[in-house]
Write a structure and sequence with these properties.
The structure holds two protein chains of two kinds. By secondary structure, chain A is mostly beta strands. Chain A is 0% helix and 55% strand. Chain A contains no helices and eleven strands. In chain A, the strands form two sheets. In chain A, strands 2, 4, 5, 6, 9, 10 and 11 form a seven-stranded mixed beta sheet that branches. Chain A is globular and about 35 Å long. Chain B is 0% helix and 47% strand. Chain B has no helices and nine strands. The mean pLDDT of chain B is 90. Classes of the chains: A mainly beta, B mainly beta.
Chain lengths: 117, 111
């Protein structure tokens, strides 16, 4: 299985809602990532988990809260979002994150299209 | 200071070879060069990675000159389905900086 899955595919939420995005991989990868991508822009890194521990947080507002329950799952909890947070949220995984000489290929999921009203 | 610079867009015709060049003047000794392809509303997909000289796989070639300050992704005989955005990334995964996407090149393949 060489796939990263994300649910839901689409999400519409109000600014007072609480929702969660989910990501799953069964490739045995130990690094997982959240990216945000606005239209016609490159993906922007938000968070990196390495061996289930948060290793990088790119100064993301606290209304985004990541969680890594186990090595196969990655969640992104959303609360009190703003309309400008509407974007495609991408999850990725790689074999590891710097623990070795290889520069690891990231496998991306299809993303969750989020609209905040 | 931007890590990479790519052309914003390129046009080509089916069957032609396409070369997309990425400039990375500040590349460090331990940095690798990686290219991803992205279709609309999909996640990026790994194409190829290299450190120096030439790397070839079943879909592309990557040419890296000796000074490593640029690299060229070569797509042989493109088809309409190669219309996508192509991103060049430069970094050292050991340093955790292989994660910044540049602006990308939007390739349009015409019939």
């Amino acid at each position: 299985d060489t796939e990263v899955t994300q649910t839901p595919k689409h999400l519409v939420m109000g600014m007072t809602n609480k929702k969660s995005l989910k990501c799953e991989q069964h490739m045995g990868h130990r690094a997982m990532y959240w990216y945000k991508q606005k239209a016609k822009k490159p993906p922007e890194l938000m968070f990196v988990y390495s061996y289930e521990k948060l290793s990088i947080n790119e100064s993301v507002p606290s209304r985004f809260s990541p969680e890594c329950p186990n090595s196969s799952l990655l969640n992104l909890h959303l609360h009190a979002l703003q309309p400008e947070d509407s974007a495609l949220y991408l999850c990725a995984s790689s074999q590891d994150n710097g623990r070795g000489a290889r520069n690891n290929e990231q496998f991306f999921g299809p993303g969750t299209r989020l609209t905040v009203l | 200071l931007a890590k990479t610079t790519q052309p914003i867009s390129m046009d080509s015709y089916e069957g032609q070879e396409v070369n997309i060049t990425c400039s990375h003047n500040n590349i460090a000794t331990n940095d690798y060069i990686t290219w991803y392809q992205q279709f609309p509303s999909q996640g990026p997909r790994f194409i190829i990675q290299g450190y120096k000289t030439k790397v070839t796989n079943e879909v592309a070639s990557l040419f890296i000159p000796a000074d490593r300050k640029s690299s060229t992704l070569s797509l042989p005989r493109v088809s309409l389905s190669d219309t996508a955005v192509y991103y060049c990334l430069v970094g050292d995964n050991n340093a955790g900086n292989m994660l910044t996407f540049g602006g990308g090149t939007r390739l349009m393949v015409k019939p």
